Amino acid sequence: MKAQRLAWAITGSGHYLRESLAILQTLQDVDVYLSRAAAEIIQQYGFQAQLEATGHKVYQDKTASSVPVERFYEGVYHTLVVSPATSNTIAKMAYGFSDSLVTNLFAQAGKTRVHSIVFACDTAPELESEAPRDHMVKVYPRHIDLHNVGLLKQFADTDVVEDMDALQDAIMQRLAGVHAVHLHAGVEVSEQQAV
Ligand SMILES: Cc1cc2nc3c(=O)[nH]c(=O)nc-3n(C[C@H](O)[C@H](O)[C@H](O)COP(=O)(O)O)c2cc1C
């Protein structure tokens, strides 16, 4: 059995982009997927070097059919992380759209029963958010934004986390579980070989 990997999708959000990249830097066996907006926002915030420093392979949203999502059907991934997730992507995911790379990843993860962990930007009615060039702005997510996050919380095989500590904990829990499965699979293989 080939060890499975983690897929991490980044959307076009400045909110907690820096922190998401910092967590990505600590992980191994990850493929990164960028929405078209994420590719722009990473440039605007000057975070291209941080993305490259993670050393992970990066997939861009270049095809209408989201070609890379076939990797879910090949069993490549054990988990999908979407962080940070914009109001736009949350709304589409909550209503079942799959018309972009990131919304397709979430849809295909669901259809292949791969667990998803989502950090939605809109966690509260009032937020402080990082804007380009290192300054903070006030953001007031609308009722519809918070409602959509609530809808997503009802999805099967999906954890919607509220902050970076919860994101890190959820990822660590998944990795521990997957590691145990891999170890177990390895034991089965060697026992069979011994017989
Ligand atoms: C500088 C900048 C920062 C942004 N930050 C956020 C954000 O924190 N949260 C959000 O929901 N949208 C944010 N946006 C808007 C999204 O990038 C925009 O809605 C985009 O269409 C999202 O596309 P995606 O969901 O496919 O990534 C930001 C836009 C700009 C220009």
Automatic annotation (TrEMBL):
Leader sequence residues: none
Domain Flavoprotein span(s) in chain numbering: 5-127
Name of the featured protein: Flavoprotein
Source organism of this protein record: Methylophilus aquaticus
High-level lineage: Bacteria, Pseudomonadati, Pseudomonadota, Betaproteobacteria, Nitrosomonadales
